[in-house]
């Protein structure tokens, strides 16, 4: 092959129009599935597009972020990138990469070498880099070539893929998760002769080592294998975008980088393109030595045969043929042959894959799977339907059947086993190896046939120290939670895997007493796992690929910890054992309905085989079971009955968890429970009345406080409130008594006295507070009146005026007023005469009554000593009125006489 000149301008689009159409028309899925995220990376290198129209034949992921790349800026930033040292990457070259969910992350780069030295000199336009961001555990590979920039990396959300797509408006990039692909690149349809006749793959010692489940770890060394990449003419033409061999080689390197994003952190293996590939990359379908229409396993053997003729065995370590197939999907066939040239069966050239001819760079997942075989890993599925029946459960695969149904890890048949497919709709499959595959590959690569070729590099890394915790006995059909820990200098991710080999194939979600029941979940930040998946448990959903043990049996689990470093990831595991015995442990009540906040509620459960734990605790969740932050019962005997106080939180999304103490099994009640926080009910009764002769009245009062969840006498209070300061309130007598757990009675009395006004109002207020702090009060008003009038006695002096000399004479009044209540007062109401001032024969005078201050307490006034000449004498009358503060009054009068004669 000859290398074309390097065009640094590329064809990256400066923008994209929604209305544009690619070759073959618009792809409606492209707009329907897209995630729209605005903004640019902080360095301005990446720009998120609001929309993009993809070519119709391109299989758009179900979710992705479309972007443009400033390729010239990237090229300038990469010029001084340091070379990889297989240790931590120095923060010398820093750029931003797009996330699959939107946004950007800053990473450090180092220049790697995925091309043999000869090819690297021949194609300098193809560059590869490793990157990492230890803060977020973001690591991977970048390939820069004539077809653009390809990124594959490990993130906290699975494998990231960023790849270019040629549109009518130029080149755009898609950032997406590997599990969101729709091109079938993660579906491995292998032929029924994928394994052929079983043969020994490892030495007897290595088989014994793997079968003994001896602990295997990786990370201190990286094994680099040279891969002789062969192509059919059809593959060459599918990947040639006008740049010829450079385009094809750029595509192959990007595929290897994608596979390395799995192999390096998982099993400490890196693939590089062997210089020998230059002799087996064929551009013409009419002259290449392959029939692209044949099955992958036929092509596998054809690749072996061609390599044996064209290549020197010393020039490569593993061989793989890149071919195509129509439409989407990927299929492959490989043998356990790394380094081997023993014979036609055990030959390192026996590997081939057919990738979809749809414009996508879809070989990474297939490569990781097929190279996984070549490195020593068998299939891990145990299903008995669909493609799981193509390779009958031969002696080899029966040794590695550690996943239920189709399985979901890299060596499984995820999505290809019909009714035995694992349900990945809630939690997707993962681009990682099951720990069984890890055992097989690492054992072979570092202790078996794989040590006879390749290059070994010391990484300076160490595997984590992992502790899976103790062993337990749990009952059947009962949820449980696994918790372990690990330590490492790097940030770690974890996953738990069941490690029980299936003796025979079986339908998914069946439990014959052996084999796996629980699928592997992708690694994450937590070192705990709830089985079954918490949300499924809360929803009452049983998914294909995860069931609880149905029979008494043994179960084994591994906690796997990874530091996810490129160039040799640190991986280690620890195991624990579970003995399943006895009938299920489960809550019988409450399982649904409503609870009252603060109420004491009975809790009942079926102990079953859970009697292995002498005590249980009860926890409460107010967020639908996502978190159980409130302890209802710290510990109680595991005898099937207890009681708890409902927390003081209203809501409809509450759950109860009954947890074994000192064990791992538990149960959660079946449905959400509603909790209502209702305040107590209070009723107060009292009555008023009239004060007695001592101006006193005894107010009697009573009250009842009730609450369905209980109210305490100590939480009930009484308050006596005067409406005005017109009476004296005595010392009350109050009796608050606990009538029952839900009722408190109140009785009492108080003397009201010294009314200075009427009516006097006394409010009796009773407040009750329940255990949750909600309070209610009720008030009754007693009205006290004074209806007793005062007494008054009036006397005048002198009581007679003589002689009638027509002169004014002073009169003095003596008034005595009394009342049962304080505040009585009197006033001069009137002073009158029974004769007119100027009558006949009275001396012709006026104003016979003087200085009488009517309406006051005036006790002295003046009267004229005269009477009518023709009368029988004059009588003056002075009237006084006594009144109390309540409005009661009484009057009395006395007289002064001017007699006719003396």
TrEMBL record:
GO MF assignments: metallopeptidase activity
UniProt-listed Gene3D superfamilies: Collagenase (Catalytic Domain)
Any matching Pfam family: Reprolysin_4
Stretches the record annotates as Disordered: 1-22, 883-902
Name of protein: Reprolysin-like metallopeptidase
């Amino acid at each position: 092959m000859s290398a074309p000149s390097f065009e640094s301008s590329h064809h990256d689009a400066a923008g994209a129009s929604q209305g544009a159409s690619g070759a073959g028309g618009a792809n409606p899925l492209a707009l329907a599935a897209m995630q729209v995220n605005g903004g640019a990376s902080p360095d301005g290198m990446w720009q998120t597009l609001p929309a993009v129209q993809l070519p119709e034949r391109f299989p758009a992921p179900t979710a992705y972020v479309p972007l443009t790349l400033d390729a010239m800026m990237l090229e300038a930033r990469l010029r001084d990138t340091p070379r990889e040292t297989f240790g931590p990457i120095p923060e010398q070259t820093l750029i931003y990469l797009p996330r699959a969910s939107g946004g950007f992350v800053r990473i450090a780069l180092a220049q790697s070498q995925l091309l043999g030295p000869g090819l690297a000199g021949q194609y300098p336009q193809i560059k590869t880099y490793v990157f990492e961001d230890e803060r977020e555990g973001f690591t991977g590979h970048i390939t820069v070539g004539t077809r653009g920039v390809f990124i594959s990396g490990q993130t906290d959300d699975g494998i990231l893929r960023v790849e270019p797509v040629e549109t009518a408006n130029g080149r755009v990039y898609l950032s997406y998760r590997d599990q969101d692909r729709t091109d079938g690149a993660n579906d491995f349809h292998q032929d029924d002769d994928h394994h052929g006749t079983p043969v020994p793959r490892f030495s007897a010692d290595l088989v014994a080592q793997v079968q003994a489940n001896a602990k295997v770890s990786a990370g201190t060394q990286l094994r680099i294998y040279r891969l002789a990449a062969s192509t059919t003419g059809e593959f060459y033409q599918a990947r040639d975008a006008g740049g010829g061999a450079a385009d094809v080689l750029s595509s192959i390197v990007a595929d290897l980088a994608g596979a390395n994003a799995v192999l390096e952190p998982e099993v400490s293996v890196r693939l590089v393109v062997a210089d020998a590939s230059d002799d087996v990359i064929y551009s013409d379908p009419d002259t290449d030595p392959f029939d692209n229409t044949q099955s992958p396993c036929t092509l596998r053997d054809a690749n072996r045969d061609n390599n044996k003729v064209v290549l020197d065995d010393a020039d490569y370590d593993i061989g793989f043929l890149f071919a195509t197939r129509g439409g989407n999907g990927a299929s492959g066939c490989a043998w356990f042959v790394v380094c081997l040239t023993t014979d036609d069966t055990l030959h390192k050239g026996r590997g081939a894959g057919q990738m979809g001819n749809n414009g996508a760079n879809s070989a990474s997942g297939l490569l990781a799977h097929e190279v996984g075989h070549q490195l020593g890993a068998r299939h891990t599925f145990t299903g008995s339907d669909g493609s799981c029946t193509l390779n009958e459960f031969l002696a080899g695969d029966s040794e590695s059947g550690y996943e239920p149904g189709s399985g979901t890890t890299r060596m499984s048949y995820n999505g290809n086993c019909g009714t035995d497919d694992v349900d990945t709709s809630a939690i997707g499959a993962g681009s990682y190896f099951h720990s069984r595959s890890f055992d097989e590959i690492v054992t072979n690569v570092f202790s078996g046939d794989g040590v006879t070729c390749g290059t070994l590099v010391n990484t300076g890394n160490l595997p984590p120290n992992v502790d899976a915790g103790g062993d337990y006995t749990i009952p059947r059909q009962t949820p449980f939670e696994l918790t372990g820990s690990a330590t490492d200098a790097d940030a770690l991710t974890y996953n738990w895997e069941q490690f029980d080999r299936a003796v025979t194939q079986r339908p998914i979600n069946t439990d014959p007493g052996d084999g796996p029941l629980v699928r592997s979940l992708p690694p994450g930040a937590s070192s705990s796992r709830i089985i079954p998946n918490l949300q499924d448990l809360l929803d009452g959903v049983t998914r294909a690929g995860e069931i609880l043990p149905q029979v008494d049996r043994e179960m084994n689990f591994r906690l796997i910890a990874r530091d996810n470093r490129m160039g040799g990831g640190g991986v280690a595991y620890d195991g624990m054992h579970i003995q399943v015995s006895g009938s299920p442990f489960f809550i019988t009540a409450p399982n649904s309905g409503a609870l009252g906040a603060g109420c004491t509620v009975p809790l009942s459960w079926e102990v079953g085989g859970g009697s292995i734990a002498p005590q249980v605790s009860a926890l409460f969740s107010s967020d639908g079971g996502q978190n159980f932050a409130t302890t209802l019962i710290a510990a109680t005997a595991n005898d099937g009955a207890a009681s708890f106080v409902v927390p003081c939180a209203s809501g409809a999304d509450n759950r109860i968890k009954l947890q074994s103490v000192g064990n791992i099994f538990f149960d959660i009640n079946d449905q959400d429970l509603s909790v209502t926080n209702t305040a107590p009910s209070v009723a107060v009764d009292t009555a008023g009345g009239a004060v007695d002769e001592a101006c006193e009245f005894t107010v009697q009062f009573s009250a009842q406080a009730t609450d369905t969840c209980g109210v305490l006498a100590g939480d009930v209070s009484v308050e006596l409130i005067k409406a005005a300061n017109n009476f004296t309130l005595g010392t009350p007598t109050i009796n608050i008594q606990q009538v029952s757990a839900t009722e408190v009675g109140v009785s009492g009395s108080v003397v009201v006295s010294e009314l200075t006004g009427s009516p006097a109002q006394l409010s009796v207020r009773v407040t009750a507070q329940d255990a949750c702090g909600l309070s209610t009060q009720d008030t009754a008003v007693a009205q006290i009146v004074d209806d007793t009038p005062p007494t008054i006695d009036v006397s005048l002096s002198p009581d007679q005026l003589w002689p009638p000399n027509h002169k004014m004479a002073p009169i003095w009044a003596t008034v005595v007023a009394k009342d049962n209540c304080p505040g009585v007062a009197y006033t001069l109401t009137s002073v009158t005469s029974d004769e007119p001032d100027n009558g006949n024969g009275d001396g012709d005078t006026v104003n016979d009554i003087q200085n009488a201050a009517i309406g006051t307490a005036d006790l002295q006034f003046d009267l004229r000593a005269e009477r009518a000449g023709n009368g029988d004498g004059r009588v003056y009358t002075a009237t006084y009125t006594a009144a109390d503060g309540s409005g009661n009054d009484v009057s009395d009068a006395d007289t002064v006489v001017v007699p006719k004669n003396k």
